[in-house]
Every structure is written in C-alpha cells, then in structure tokens.
Amino acid sequence: MGEGQKIVPRARIVCVSKDDTCVGPLTKAFVNAGYEIVAPRDGAADLCAVDLRHQSISSKKVKSITAVLRHKSPDASVFFLIDPDLDANIRTALRRFGQVIPATTDNEHIIERCRHMLRSRNIAEEAGERIKTLSALNKIVEFPAIETSNKRLNILIAGAPGPTASACITAISPFADQYTGVLSAGQTLRALDHQEFDAAIFLPIKQNNTLYSVTRAMRRNKKFAGIPIIHIAATSDDLPMLAKNGATEFLLQDHIADDLGVKIQVTAQRYRLLRSMRGFLRTCTGVGIRDKMSGAFTASFLARHGARLCVRADQSNRPLSAALIQLTVDSDVETQPGRKIMHQAARLMNRITRAEDMTARVGPDTFVVLCPATTAGDVQSLAMRIDGVLSNTAFRDGQTNNLHSVTAATAVTTRQPEMAIEELIAMLIKERNKQVSTTPLRQSPE
Predict the structure, then answer these.
(1) CA 159 to chain centre
(2) pTM for this one?
(3) Which of 41, 57, 148, 361 has the fewest Cβ atoms within 10 Å of its own Cβ atom?
(4) Fold of the CATH domain 144-282
(5) Which of 134, 163, 132, 139 shows the shortest CA–CA distance to 234?
C-alpha cells in the first residue's frame, strides 16, 4: 500500500445492544477482525448486529428496530444474537427480519458468519454490476442465466448413528427427496465422488475428528465449495470450535426439530443462487470483453466496468483495491512457446482469484486484478498467493514438451475517494516501479 494512504476497515458494522452502546467483547471481536463499529446515525453500514440476549423480545420491538436500521442502511444484512434457550416461536418470528445466531460469551462463530454474509453480498453485488456493464455495451455478449431450481433436496448426513441422526432425518424428510448417511470422513469423500448433493449435515463430532478436514477440503475444492454444510453443535460452547475448524453454518442440537428443516431448505436455495452467480461471473464473455488467449478481460472492458465500480465504491463507502501482476517466463515471450506459457499462467491466475474479482490484461505480460470491497491487506494476500502458485507450477510449452517456470512481480494499492479507474491503474504502475526486482524462492520445474 502506498505511503499516506488511509487504512480502511473490511466492513462497517452497526451494533445495537440492550443499553444502546457499542461496547463489550462483541465489539472488541469485530474490531480485532478488521471491522469498524459505527453508530446507526453515522450513515450506511454493511452489517447490522442486534443483540437480543438476556432480555424480553416481542415482534413489534424487533420490527421497529429493523425498520430503523434498514432505513439508514438499506443494503445491510441484519442478524440477531439470541440466547440458546430462546423459545422456538420467537426464533421463527425473528427469521422474518434477518438471520438468527445463538451465542453466549465467545464470538468466533459470529465473526465467521459475518465473513460469509459479506462474501455472499460481494458476489451478488458484483454480478449485478457486471450485468449492468454488459447490458450497456453495444456488443454481442454471452453469459449463462442466473437461476435456481425448486427441486427436492439430496442431503448427505455424516456422523455417528443415534438420536441426533434420527432427529435430523425426521426434520428434513418433508424437504428431502433422498438422504445418504455415512459414518466417517472416508465414506463422506466416497459419497461426494459418486453422488451430487444439495446440502450436507455434519453431526456433533469431537475436536480432532477427521470430518473437520473434510469441511476445510470442501471449502477449498471448486467442485464441492457450493455445497452448504450445516454443523450440529451439541451445546452453544461448541460453536466457536466449529468456526475455528472451517464451519460457516451452525445449528444447536436442541433446535433440530424446530429449525433444521427450514434452515436447510433456505440455505440450500441460497447456495444454489451463489453457485449460479459464480458461474455467471467466471464465464460471461462476448465481443471485445475477454482476451481470447489469456481468458482475462480486455483493457477496454476494464475501463468501462472499472468506472462503474469506482462510482459504486464512492456510493457505498467501501474500499476498492487492485493488484498489478507482471509475469516473467523463463523463455522468450515473443516466441510461440513463450506466448503459450504466458497464456497458461494467465488462465491459472484466473482460477486462483475469487469469482467476484476481475482480472484484466493491460499489457503483453501485465495483468490487473480489481477487487471490490476488499482492503489492501487482503489484496496483498491474494497477490502473494498468485505469486506462490505460479512460481511453484511447471508449465509445458506444448511443442518441445519442455518444462518452464513463471514468476510474478506484484504491486497492490487501494483506491482513494473520487479517484478514477485510470488514476488507480497509474498508481499501481507507480507502486510497481518503486519496487526492486527480486527472484522469489520457488521449486525447480524439473
């Protein structure tokens, strides 16, 4: 990040508590996670947290609170923090206004849910902005439809048999067309390879169970990342442990009978929509929109869509960061094999980046990754990942079948308010020119 740039938060969160103050362990956890706590009157926020613990709750009270928050922050997601033993009818009423998260003293799972909600919002907003830009072009464009289906669910249940498993089966039966039960991590992986599931339920497991590894592996795998996993927690004290092991969807064991059926239906439908939007963002194309060889967006489309993202960033008061990636091939890039290696590396870079990020080619060996609602620190992590993956990948030229290596020189920056997309790219180039060229540590392609 350049000198003199203001450090911006990952998101702005409004906290509403019983005494109308934003203090305590919850706000400290938000600040430690990189979020900024704002008052409801301070303008639009990204998330609204309403703490309803240790107090009486009525639908009228919640409706009025939600109305005020949505008036000030119409784009924000609202979620409620409740006591684990709250009545089922009240939990059902709260879900009409936002997501419901049981919590006690530890807030790790709340932070994880916030990350997931923000990521879902970013994907949806980028899909909407991308459609606007494509529709405004006087060119032929192609993109898949964004749609979901209402088919009955195929659900995977993993864990030991017993009363909890029986309760889950009873709760999901009205919504499930088929459900498959497995006992171990190995059986879970085999079931995922042989069937297509709309959702998964992981029963209460011990801390060192290998099903946690399956959870993390599914989140990293492109094929399985779109399958929601609802982890059942034996007690509310287990929720932070589940979050630390990669879980994003939670449900207490005592809430299975009343909440699991509706939750799995809504969650599966939401994930289907997210998968559809991700597919749209990765495959939308048309005349002059993507570079045919590298698969990245063209510089002209970057100028059009980047201008729209800059305006959106000013309207929403969210950061817009970018990374410049300059690739170097250990072969003459002007030759046919050298160009093929460059294009292979560019396509690999497209797969590394998130669906909501925009990778554009601005030079023969230079690419820009535009990341909406992302801080410079997070973009730096993305640039380091791109550098690490490319530096440790061996590419074949397709003619001599020889192995080649590719290195990436990176620079990152965050857009300042009222800055145009051209100024942002110029700042990136300036940052890149300041750096001293170094050879990164990498494995030998041999």
Answers:
(1) 27
(2) 0.90
(3) 41
(4) Rossmann fold (3.40.50)
(5) 163
